[in-house]
Amino acid sequence: MNTTPEQLKETIHKAKEGNQMAFSSLLDRFWNEVYNFQLGRTKNENDAEDITIQTFSRAFDKIQTFDEAYEFKTWLFTISKNIHVDLLRKRKRNILEQSSPGNSDAIKKVLDDAPTAEDQLIKDQNLASLLGHIRNLKPHYREVINLRYFQELSYAAIAEELGEPINNVKVKLLRAKKLLAELIKGK
């Protein structure tokens, strides 16, 4: 999708005003570039896709902070790079925590993962609460949550099921998760 710098500035301006079509346009325009950038860094398709999704989610949440003196693609790449660095730090920290000699008792506790009756009751209550929050979402958001997390379909399978482009499915799922998080927090 070739756009002139003026068209891109206009699209960014509309996105800053909350125009959903502008967000979709920016996602369509830059998705492959951010994904390929991450694929080159991570050498892992799943990580690249997850980081790309997080990149657009963070960018759209912080679109008001974008300074138009810079290139939008550079801004996205910077966000993407920071998310990747955070992921690497988290993984490194997890590996260090697991490998320290003082953790043998903690490891034994983790190995006994059979849920107690209390754990099962809490899990059931949390699931009932989560399902109640999901029921409060609009039908198209409920559907995409159901397909992804309860039926465990891939993005491609969801796109085929809904008859929508895969990027629209990703954006819809991002919005659904954000709305669900707000419902859970009680906003």
Automatic annotation (TrEMBL):
Domain RNA polymerase sigma-70 region: 32-93
Listed name of the protein: DNA-directed RNA polymerase sigma-70 factor
Family matches, as Pfam families: Sigma70_r2 (PF04542), Sigma70_r4_2 (PF08281)
Family: Belongs to the sigma-70 factor family. ECF subfamily.
Source organism, top-level taxon: Bacteria
Species whose genome carries this gene: Muriicola marianensis
Alphabetical list of NCBIfam families matching this protein: sigma70-ECF
Residue ranges of domain RNA polymerase sigma factor 70 region 4 type in the record: 134-180
Keyword Membrane: no
Gene3D superfamilies associated with the record: 1.10.1740.10, Winged helix-like DNA-binding domain superfamily/Winged helix DNA-binding domain
Stored InterPro entries: RNA_pol_sigma-70-like, RNA_pol_sigma-70_dom, RNA_pol_sigma70_r2, RNA_pol_sigma70_r4_t2, RNA_pol_sigma_r2, RNA_pol_sigma_r3/r4-like, WH-like_DNA-bd_sf
UniProt GO cellular component terms: DNA-directed RNA polymerase complex
Keywords linked to the UniProt accession: DNA-directed RNA polymerase, Sigma factor, Transcription, Transcription regulation
